[in-house]
Amino acid sequence: MPLFSYIAKDPNGRIERSTINAVSAEEVRENLRKKNLTVEDVLETVAVTPTPIVPSFTASKPWTTIEDAKEEKKVTKAMAAEELAYFPLVDTLRLFAGWLLAWYALVYLLGDFQMHKHLPIHIDLVDALFISSLVLRFTFGTFLFLLLTSIHAWMGRGIGKGLALTVLGVVTFVLFHVNVP
User: Fold this and answer.
1) What pTM value is reported for the model?
2) Is the separation of the CB atoms in 38 and 13 below 8 Å?
3) What is the DSSP string of 137-159?
4) What CA–CA distances, in Å, run from 35 to 6, 12, 91, 120?
5) Domain 3-45 CATH (choose: 3.10.20, 3.90.550, 3.30.1340, 2.60.40)
6) Beta bridge partners of 19
7) pLDDT by residue (tens digit) across 8-61?
């Protein structure tokens, strides 16, 4: 039995749109008149048969193959795993070393201002940190670490290069430690 779509008005003037199964368009009109509806239009709808899906194409992206979809799933999984991964240890240490160096710069800045009487108040902790040789050594060590890890990244990384730069850094730090009171 064919399917017909229709547009009709009820006695209040509201438009009703729907579909109905019937033998002919005339039968649809008669059924609608019996329901006290004024028929505006009746059309036979053609049933749309779904086109078969070609096995090498996906329905959502017809220009891609199933292999492309599998590759996309692999990439999505890899990206999700990467988001959950932690930062490498050296990058994390560089982050903390950068903040530590900023703190040391603040200590030296406040110490210099306090030493030249530019601060309105006197802070004993700033004096202690400013004249401390331990803070000076840690400042140099932090700076050296940041410098050598930047050079290591610039050189393209690698274990051999990293070991050579580590030895250079340790030797430089020991020479600094021995020669600075």
Assistant:
1) 0.49
2) no
3) HHHHHHHHHHHHHHHHHHTT--H
4) 13, 13, 77, 94
5) 3.10.20
6) 5
7) 888 888 888 888 888 888 898 998 899 888 888 888 887 655 555 555 555 555
